[in-house]
Amino acid sequence: MLQGGVDLSHVKWIPFDGTGRAARVGLNFTEKGFGVRAAVGCSDRAHSAASQLQPGDVDWTQLFQVEGVRWFHCGGIFAALSPTAAETAIAAMQVARAAGTVISYDLNFRPSLWKSQGGTARAVEVNRKIASLVDVMIGNEEDFTAALGFQVPFMDEHISKLDPANFKKMISEVVKMYPNCKAVATTLRNAKTASINDWGAILWSDGQFYEAPLRENLEVYDRVGGGDSFASGLTYALLAGKVPQEAVEYGAAHGALAMTTPGDTSMATLKEVESVMKGKGARVAR
To answer: What's this model's pTM, rounded to 2 decimal places?
Structure first.
């Protein structure tokens, strides 16, 4: 956060007991895979400080109504950490909604995080409560199915048929159930191998669909962070006043770039993202 220039004045610090029994920073380990060996993730989030957050731990009124936060983003990984985490997300969104703050939510379904607290059925129950408060809903191919209970027509169990038309039908059902959503976006990933993916995205906004160019056979160095970087690229564009077509292209290009570096934190610059959007080649820049 320091390297990224993030304001740390609102961070809630928890005393460290020396070992992390009481509270710790959650970790995520991913063996990135290669070729026919798929990536494997392991969430090490037990006893994390974030999982212990309570709805009253943060002065949400101060943030949204007094300080005027413009955009609040949360996701399914946080909501799955504990019952109080989900309650905290809902409490924050209720105050944000009253203040007119834009709320975005990345469904980010992780089976391992829900396994001990009701599984997929509980995930759907929690995420449907949250969805009723969200302005911008984001997910990938399986998130809308596993986290909200929607079905993508004709999608096989290996998620290898990414016909945008079928995802558009699913999104149409989402906005019917959640008319509060002003935008719904989904990434489209066909993992041919761990190293070669087809990568695209769709955005629904104000009754219209917008598609990013499909990047077939995208070479992947480390797929972790592709979805988060799509979400942040989309958010940047919408906050910057870009039109929906530009927004989905910023998101898809940023996600593609994030998968060219190790780890889940994108270090891509705006100039680099816009270069990818323009289709510039990968010749060395000197």
So the answer is: 0.91
